[in-house]
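#struct-pred
JK: can someone run the complex with alpha-D-glucopyranose? inputs below
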Amino acid sequence: MLKIWHRAYEIVPEQLKRAAKVERVATAFNTNIDAVVKISGKRLSELAAEVGMKSADLQNPQTKLHTPQDAVRGISKCFINGIAEEWLCDDKEVYTWLEEHLGCKRLQMGGQAGIIANVSAILGVQQVYAHTAAHPKLMAEQFVDADNLCAFAADGTKQKAREVNRDGEEPPIHLIMEFDAGDTLSLDNQIYICPKSNRFIATYDTVNTALKINDGFVKYIDSLGFDFMILSGFHALTAEHGGLQRIAETLPLIKKWKQANPNGIIHLELASTQDLAVRRAILEQLAPVVDSLGLNEREALEAEEIVAPKRDARNNLNAVALLNILLELKQKLQTPRIQLHFYGMYMTLQNKDFPITPEQNKRGMMLAATVAASKAATGNIEIKSNLLQAHGRQIGEKSLQNLCELAAALNNSAVSESGITECGGFDLIAVPTILAEKPLTLVGMGDTISAVSLIGAR
Ligand code: GLC
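RT: done, structure tokens with the ligand placed:
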């Protein structure tokens, strides 16, 4: 089985060349700057002491940043459980407190639209158009220096994204705190061991959280169209700040784009959405309108909470349980294609008449798995020579085990070697992935997987 999959993965470099044949990719709406910092358990306990927090203070279920204590609680929650969360902050003082207490940060491209724009440009897509709600010089500097990557200047003209300077717009900076598996946090008498490397995001961002739309981008897309439109950023909205209205206002724009581009594919990257009313609106209003949806296992559970709220909590999230959730989402949301990615496997479930064949999906997913492992291993795929750095690396044992479990549950042993079958009246494509031992970075991984799987599916 391992040999068969290694042989299948041999096509990856060829697949990268095919991705460069894609003509136009547009990405919208959230582009921001990520200020990434590593936080140790020791530093976290110092911060907790500074704000007078005890273990018992961690129990509060609320997920917004109103005080420095909330920030410590958020980071601790993610650290203790090895999970990723993003909490919004409306109070600049709280954000500044956190910024001042974290130390040296590394700036990089952030936001699904920004991250996917950069990776699409590096893949060699001929023209990439990135939506930016704010684009001062510091934002421009996060774009890769590539002529095929454009954004829009203050006067609405298309320019190289790296060179746009909408002076006077405030750069939207998100704080990303990454922590390592095995690190320990001690709070009063308790010692917690971090089970999985992950990150906590603190977001103070007045433009993306309001889904401010740039007219230059809209006019250009209206006139020229696209092959792929990758959408995201709705997860940062809140009902309290008019988020439901922004979704309702954006819906006609998406419908118009779809009508004007019958052969183009519109993909929505779900992202973890804390506000339940916003999550419901995304799933009920946007998901049925787009052609494709991308999500990870956590977001799949969050979506299930909305579409099948009575279901008992699932404890064991193995490949079979995740396939069942995927099937449920596919039936309820009516999105033609849904891709779910999790540790060791990507699964795509799509309508039988979807314009991308199962074989094309499989090739795109293997390209994505290689690019994702390269990103984890090198920490930077904004350099083209790093893109396939992980090509030829061993496919994870856990990955093969996932696929075997799936094949057993489907009573179809052939699928463990082909990765393609039918399930619930849909085409199912399941690919085991290459696993990076000690990932250098994780932020933006899911966005990269979804986008490369789709754009590279040729
Ligand atoms: C969210 C965050 C952004 C981060 C991205 C990574 O959009 O707001 O800061 O870069 O997720 O997936």
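RT: quick notes.
The two ends are 24 Å apart (CA to CA).
The pocket of alpha-D-glucopyranose is lined by residues 30, 32, 34, 86, 110-112, 174, 201, 203, 271, 443-444, 447 (CB under 6 Å).
JK: thanks, will look after standup
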